[in-house]
């Protein structure tokens, strides 16, 4: 706790914002203990602190009591909040440090604690939360109770899964994970694994110097329709840049010159359909992997051909975009998909396929259930994409940024995943490496371009730098 408090104080001193006074609000668990220790350390450095303790009528955790005694020893007198009249009145030059509840919160806040959180949020002063914004539950949705809206959260050691969910973004503000010398990543018994450089480094396979293009897979990208041929261009380029030895593309006739011109490295096939795919004449034995869906449309003839194709597939494929929308219209097809196939829905596509969910936690749970039920890998795309595996494992990606919320970004991911499958990665490894690479290429792209200016083609353009970074640290 002393180490945690010292790290917080160091961060606070490095980010001084001209505040006259630090108001520290403590609970009586260990999060409150952190708050008391932070108060003492700040005061030792000559900073004016006012400490409030929300009174629960019990002594508090052992570490809380130890730190309360240390305050008494230094003649620092905290205020005890017993009713709403004891709530702190704050000035614009105050900074609030929120140490009410941390990871030990086990139910939504109510009563005086809920009123205090609402009061603090209404003051309009900056709040820095210690470990977790008070009121946030780490393993279920916090929608039922009030939660502190922090500008910054100083969290200890672990990236908490709840911080990765869109519904919690407004509460945490910017998250800073401080190293206090404990195990890194998610906590050891967490039901999720973080996809980080360390994990990806164990999966990435460097190429044999004697390899030739036949060693790195021949992959087929299937999709495209009038007005959406760019999706196929992006996914084919991504498949090439992600390392496939050969890339073929199947598009309706109207796409032939587009693909041949925009992606000369790819081979292009067309079929009877002029403006949309109808027949899906695919000799699957010719390819090591197939990705289906970008820009494909959901016309009745396309759906018919697509469902016939699915019943003939013999190995796992990647399905995205309109392939998922076709599936959503004929959900019985889900059970005909080759086991180990990869589905890459964003939130809307996921809900069309599997139903609407109340909150992010419910959606994650449903994705895990569906992955298990159908024997599929489901990549639920978002700021931090989830990979749900059929054996119940679940992973959260740590790369990526808001600049990647741009048209075509998903088509690029489809190309990357198909390419990795084609190079012999298992479905699980293709998902883990694929989402990480995709996000990392976006992160590198944003450094040069800004979140606003990044477009999907830039993700493809930065795949090389992303591979180099992964390889250099593997
Ligand atoms: N290795 C660690 O785990 C470390 C933990 N530390 C701190 O310890 C915190 C966890 O401490 P605790 O487990 O004591 O828990 P917290 O301090 O988060 O709060 C739990 C306390 O609140 C009570 N409580 C739970 N839900 C409540 C509700 N809805 N309304 C009112 N009371 C409620 C509990 O009975 C308990 O007394 C972390 O967030 C972090 O701040 C740090 O000191 C650093 C090291
Ligand atoms: K807190």
Automatic annotation (TrEMBL):
Residues binding (6S)-NADPHX: 231, 295, 346, 411
Annotated protein name in UniProt: ADP-dependent (S)-NAD(P)H-hydrate dehydratase
Every YjeF N-terminal domain range: 1-188
Cofactor(s) demanded: Mg(2+); K(+)
Domain YjeF C-terminal: 196-470
Catalyzed reactions per annotation: (6R)-NADHX = (6S)-NADHX; (6S)-NADHX + ADP = AMP + phosphate + NADH + H(+); (6S)-NADPHX + ADP = AMP + phosphate + NADPH + H(+); (6R)-NADPHX = (6S)-NADPHX
GO molecular function term, any single one: NAD(P)HX epimerase activity
Biological process, per Gene Ontology: metabolite repair; nicotinamide nucleotide metabolic process
Binding site for AMP: 381-385, 410
One Pfam family named in its UniProt record: YjeF_N
Spans traversing the lipid bilayer: none
Protein family per UniProt: In the N-terminal section; belongs to the NnrE/AIBP family. Belongs to the NnrD/CARKD family.
Function: Bifunctional enzyme that catalyzes the epimerization of the S- and R-forms of NAD(P)HX and the dehydration of the S-form of NAD(P)HX at the expense of ADP, which is converted to AMP. This allows the repair of both epimers of NAD(P)HX, a damaged form of NAD(P)H that is a result of enzymatic or heat-dependent hydration. Catalyzes the dehydration of the S-form of NAD(P)HX at the expense of ADP, which is converted to AMP. Together with NAD(P)HX epimerase, which catalyzes the epimerization of the S- and R-forms, the enzyme allows the repair of both epimers of NAD(P)HX, a damaged form of NAD(P)H that is a result of enzymatic or heat-dependent hydration.
HAMAP family associated with the record: NADHX_dehydratase
Superkingdom to which the source organism belongs: Bacteria
Cofactor note: Binds 1 potassium ion per subunit.
InterPro entries: Carbohydrate_kinase_pred_CS (IPR017953), CARKD (IPR000631), Nnr (IPR030677), Ribokinase-like (IPR029056), YjeF_N_dom (IPR004443), YjeF_N_dom_sf (IPR036652)
